[in-house]
């Protein structure tokens, strides 16, 4: 006959195993890029550093699209004309955009409407913004979500939206009405070192309603946003929480402007270069997994009581 002591040990062992397994499977990395590859003007000449679980085949030279980039970027150097885009490159195992005069951007060639996102209840995007020379709200690094392929591919200058009146974000504000993403967030070099985020084409007139700014400790750091999603249909509500270096800066909600349109891209503006690292898109932990972990934690915490019994 199994003793109480043996049963307790068995339950504890099972819960420890369950907790470890749940932790392993509760969040899926759909896409990640550490940029750990050889220096190149071609962002994806090599797949080194790229983790692809999107379900879309992303071969070398086809992981990213760069809709706004200096035509002389590859092989370089840039032509020095800010009106036709800045450069892009992998340098020292990091991503650099807006190299030289002009802005530049890049997006992943996958539509992030994965069933895994709906099953988990949402997704998280994370990006390290490591450096740029500018010290005004017009310089920095950002990312955008909720774009159709056409919108992402037609996006232009991060500041003015010229020449097609389209840009990923309004993190570096001028022509806010040209913003084509449903949600964006960016770090910028304002005197107060700001994290800015918004719901699509919003500007200073929308401050506090659909455009937000939070002073942070530095003009560099890790920016992230977690989105709760139960549909990719146009008009469906999406909840969000934004983070700077892992600390929450605000919450809110917006709606998808188009159905099944969730391309994700990186935006930048500077006079020299914006340096990025560790770009990732993951599902959020599934609610059932969180419940299991919480239950395991509660029972494991009762071990002291068992020992005292």
Notable features of this structure?
alpha+beta, disordered C terminus, 5 helices, 309 residues, Jelly Rolls, 33% strand, 7-stranded antiparallel β-sheet, PEP-CTERM protein-sorting domain-containing protein, 9-stranded antiparallel β-sheet, single chain
Describe this entry's structure for a reader.
The chain has 309 residues and is of the alpha+beta class. It has a single domain (28-308), classed as Jelly Rolls (Sandwich). The chain contains 5 helices and 16 strands. The strands form 2 sheets. Strands 1, 2, 4, 5, 7, 12, 13, 14 and 16 form a 9-stranded antiparallel beta sheet that branches. It has a 7-stranded antiparallel beta sheet with strand order 3-6-15-8-9-10-11. Helix 1 (4-25) packs antiparallel against helix 4. It starts with a helix and ends with a helix.
Broad CATH class: Mainly Beta
**Quantity of strands, as a count:** 16
Structural class: alpha+beta
What's the CATH superfamily, by name? Exo-inulinase, domain 1
Domains (count): 1
Largest sheet: 9 strands, antiparallel
CATH topology (fold) name: Jelly Rolls
Uncertain stretches of 5 or more adjacent residues: 4-24, 288-309
Share of residues in helices: 10-25%
CATH-scheme architecture: Sandwich
């Amino acid at each position: 006959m199994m003793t109480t002591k043996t049963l307790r040990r068995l339950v504890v062992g099972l819960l420890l195993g369950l907790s470890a397994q749940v932790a392993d499977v509760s969040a899926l990395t759909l896409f990640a890029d550490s940029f750990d590859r050889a220096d190149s003007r071609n962002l994806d000449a090599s797949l080194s550093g790229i983790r692809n679980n999107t379900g879309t085949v992303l071969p070398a030279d086809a992981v990213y699209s760069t809709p706004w980039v200096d035509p002389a970027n590859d092989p370089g150097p840039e032509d020095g004309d800010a009106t036709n885009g800045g450069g892009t490159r992998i340098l020292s195992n990091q991503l650099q955009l807006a190299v030289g005069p002009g802005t530049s951007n890049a997006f992943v060639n996958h539509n992030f409407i994965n069933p895994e996102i709906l099953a988990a209840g949402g997704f998280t995007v994370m990006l390290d913004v490591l450096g740029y020379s500018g010290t005004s709200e017009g310089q920095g690094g950002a990312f955008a979500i909720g774009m159709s392929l056409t919108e992402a591919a037609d996006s232009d200058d991060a500041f003015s939206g010229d020449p097609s009146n389209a840009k990923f974000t309004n993190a570096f504000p001028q022509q806010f009405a040209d913003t084509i993403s449903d949600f964006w967030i960016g770090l910028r070099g304002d005197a107060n070192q700001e994290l800015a985020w918004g719901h699509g084409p919003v500007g200073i007139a929308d401050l506090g309603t659909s455009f937000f700014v939070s002073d942070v400790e530095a003009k560099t750091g890790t920016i992230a946003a977690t989105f709760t999603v139960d549909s990719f249909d146009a008009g469906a509500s999406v909840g969000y929480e934004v983070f700077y270096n892992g600390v929450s800066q605000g919450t809110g909600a917006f709606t998808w402007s188009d159905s099944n349109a969730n391309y994700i891209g990186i935006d930048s503006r500077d006079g020299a270069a914006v340096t990025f690292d560790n770009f990732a898109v993951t599902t959020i932990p599934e609610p059932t997994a969180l419940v299991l972990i919480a239950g395991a934690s509660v029972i494991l915490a009762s071990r002291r009581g068992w020992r005292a019994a």
